[in-house]
């Protein structure tokens, strides 16, 4: 995982950083790995260079979780997993949004229900959602997940209680807020997912040097 953390940042800063990071990496690949990309374009995924150019050149779509659910419910697509406000989006939902609904453009979904996100994500003023975001890309789905962190001690303690988590076990985390904190945000990017996205490889196991697969552990 690649996990930057930004001080004095909110969710908008977090999304901007994630966008800039992904665009920089993709642009660097296109400019400095041309032979490799020609190989992938010929033998792995036709059109991958055009797809990556779209990441660099086109604006990312921004969508709230609520709007994403409405979009999925309004589609004629029959999904394996149900779509309902309050349920997490599955890979098939994410890929439909980025590949079909928005024609292959990266999509950032924000403001998820607090029940399906971690306790440390900052609660929004509506009391129902948190300042969290996922960046979706074609063929992979979620590539980056992040949030603005909850810097308010009383809200953090309330979230621990809501999720029936023992506050004594999180004393060290609470102390970070108790003795001084600032608004901050961060995200995690799955490196193997990035390799998969940038190369066009179908199976993520082929993007990992030593993949863990069922039956491979001898001890």
From TrEMBL:
Residue ranges occupied by any Aminoacyl-tRNA synthetase class II (D/K/N) domain in the UniProt entry: 1-213
Keyword set includes ATP-binding: yes
GO biological process: asparaginyl-tRNA aminoacylation
GO function terms (MF aspect): asparagine-tRNA ligase activity; ATP binding
TM segment ranges: none
A Pfam family assignment: tRNA-synt_2
This protein's UniProt keywords: Aminoacyl-tRNA synthetase, ATP-binding, Ligase, Nucleotide-binding, Protein biosynthesis
The organism's place on the tree of life at top rank: Eukaryota
Coiled coil, from the record: none
Claim: Chaperone is one of the keywords in the record: no
PANTHER family membership: ASPARAGINE--TRNA LIGASE, MITOCHONDRIAL-RELATED, ASPARTYL/LYSYL-TRNA SYNTHETASE
Record-given protein name: NS1
């Amino acid at each position: 995982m690649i996990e930057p953390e930004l001080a004095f940042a909110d969710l908008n800063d977090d999304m901007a950083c994630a966008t800039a990071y992904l665009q920089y990496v993709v642009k660097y690949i296109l400019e400095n790995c041309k032979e490799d990309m020609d190989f992938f374009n010929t033998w792995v995924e036709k059109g991958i260079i055009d797809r990556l150019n779209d990441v660099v050149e086109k604006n990312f779509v921004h969508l709230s979780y609520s709007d994403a659910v409405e979009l999925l419910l309004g589609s004629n697509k029959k999904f394996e997993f149900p779509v309902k406000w309050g349920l997490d989006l599955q890979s098939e939902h994410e890929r439909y949004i980025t590949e079909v609904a928005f024609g292959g453009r990266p999509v950032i979904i924000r403001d998820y229900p607090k029940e399906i996100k971690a306790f440390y994500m900052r609660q929004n003023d509506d009391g129902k959602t948190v300042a969290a975001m996922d960046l979706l890309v074609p063929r992979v789905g979620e590539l980056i997940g992040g949030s603005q962190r909850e810097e308010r001690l009383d809200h953090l303690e309330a979230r621990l209680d809501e999720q029936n988590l023992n506050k004594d076990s999180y004393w060290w985390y609470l102390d970070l807020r108790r003795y001084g904190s600032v608004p901050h945000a961060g995200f995690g990017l799955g490196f193997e997912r990035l390799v998969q996205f940038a190369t066009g490889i179908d199976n993520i196991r082929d993007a990992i040097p030593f993949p863990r697969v069922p039956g491979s552990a001898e001890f």
